[in-house]
């Protein structure tokens, strides 16, 4: 039995790969239950399912309702922000998102607004002006629901942080997930006292990435897989720190006892934990995992924290620094 408790803050369970569909082709049976079983056995005890559009957010909520350990976000990804205007009535679209978020809050399932933000690497999907307009609009959702924000930032740190600064009174806390930015980008984010940084395999590809991650204080970090993407590959700089391994097979030779080669899944968040600890030179991985777990609860599951637990963990964090 796993002793480390982890929360995977970003899983794209709405992706067709978890239905066994790759590039439009059915390669194996839908296997979400099997994937979840591996995650729970590995010490993952909660997962946040990412919503990236109105329809995807509806699906994420439906998936979250199937298990008490699943939660979700409601929002529109920067590359899909055209949907506000393509529906013909941006305000109506906003109100539909708000209604869905409120429904999910009542059900105890929606824990953040997002995934929203800016992505200047993929402007062919949505121009920057449209992205900025509807990133800003989604702060209204956070303000109306009192939810934290689940954020996306790619090659857009300056505009992203400017919009954050302008709207900092409208959201309680947030995480900039799947962080792949520079040390300068990291430091800009860390200036916001209520901002955390989410790290996954894409954050750990190169030695430069590892150097940036070294500079993220553990008390300002969360871990994730962003499954089925962002796996830690054998070519990644931090692969030598990975200790937890699972047997894998190609999708064409599907075996429910094995992970699908090339498809990331939540059990592998333990590898992210191991690489972060390794690159930071932290030997007490158990203590580090407790700090990360606490960070995640503080933002997304604040009802789980009481003052005694807070004080206890604050003491542990001090001990780690000394």
What is the fold's blueprint, element by element?
Elements: E1 6-11, E2 21-22, E3 25-26, H1 32-42, E4 44-49, H2 54-64, E5 70-74, H3 83-86, H4 90-106, E6 110-119, H5 128-145, E7 149-154, H6 157-166, E8 174-177, H7 183-190, E9 195-199, H8 207-214, E10 221-223, E11 248-249, E12 259-260, H9 269-280, H10 285-300, H11 307-321
Parallel strand pairs: 1-4, 4-5, 5-6, 6-7, 7-8, 8-9, 9-10, 11-12
Antiparallel strand pairs: 2-3
Keywords:
alpha/beta, 40% helix, metal-binding, globular, TIM Barrel
Polypeptide structure, described:
- This is TatD_DNase domain-containing protein.
- Keywords: Hydrolase, Metal-binding, Nuclease.
- The chain has a single domain, classed as TIM Barrel, CATH 3.20.20.140.
- The protein starts with 5 loop residues before the first strand and ends with a helix.
- It is of the alpha/beta class and 322 residues long.
- Helix 6 (157-166) links the parallel strand 7 (149-154) and strand 8 (174-177).
- The longest helix has 18 residues, at 128-145.
- It is globular, with a radius of gyration of 19 Å.
- The chain is built from eleven helices and twelve strands.
- The protein has helices at residues 32-42, 54-64, 83-86, 90-106, 128-145, 157-166, 183-190, 207-214, 269-280, 285-300, 307-321; strands spanning 6-11, 21-22, 25-26, 44-49, 70-74, 110-119, 149-154, 174-177, 195-199, 221-223, 248-249, 259-260.
- The strands form three sheets. An eight-stranded parallel β-sheet has the order 1-4-5-6-7-8-9-10. A two-stranded antiparallel sheet has the order 2-3. A two-stranded parallel ribbon has the order 11-12.
């Amino acid at each position: 039995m796993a002793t480390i408790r982890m929360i995977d803050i970003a899983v794209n369970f709405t992706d067709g790969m978890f239905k066994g569909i790759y590039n439009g082709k059915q390669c194996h049976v839908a296997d979400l239950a099997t994937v979840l079983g591996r995650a729970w056995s590995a010490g993952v005890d909660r997962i946040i399912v990412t919503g990236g559009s109105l329809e995807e957010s509806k699906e994420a909520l439906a998936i979250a309702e199937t298990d008490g350990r699943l939660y979700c976000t409601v929002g529109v990804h920067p590359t899909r922000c055209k949907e506000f205007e393509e529906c013909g009535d941006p305000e109506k679209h906003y109100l539909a998102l708000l209604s869905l978020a409120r429904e999910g809050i009542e059900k105890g399932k929606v824990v953040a607004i997002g995934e929203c933000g800016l992505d200047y690497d993929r402007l062919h999907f949505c121009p920057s002006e449209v992205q900025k307009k509807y990133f800003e609009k989604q702060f209204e959702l956070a303000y109306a629901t009192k939810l934290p924000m689940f954020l996306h930032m790619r090659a857009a740190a300056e505009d992203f942080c400017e919009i954050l600064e302008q709207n900092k009174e409208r959201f309680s806390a947030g995480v900039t997930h799947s962080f792949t930015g520079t040390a300068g980008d990291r430091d800009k984010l860390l200036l916001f006292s209520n901002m955390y940084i989410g790290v996954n395999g894409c954050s750990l590809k190169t030695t430069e990435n590892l150097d940036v991650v070294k500079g993220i204080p553990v008390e300002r970090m969360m871990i994730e897989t962003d499954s089925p993407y962002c796996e830690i590959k054998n070519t990644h700089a931090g692969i030598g720190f990975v200790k937890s391994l699972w047997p894998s097979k190609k999708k064409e030779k599907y075996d429910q006892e094995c992970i699908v080669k090339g498809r990331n899944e939540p059990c592998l968040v333990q590898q992210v934990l191991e690489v972060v600890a390794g690159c930071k030179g932290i030997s007490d991985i158990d203590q580090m995992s407790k700090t990360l777990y606490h960070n995640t609860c503080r933002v997304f599951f604040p009802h789980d924290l009481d003052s005694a637990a807070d004080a206890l963990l604050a003491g542990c964090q001090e001990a780690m620094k000394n």
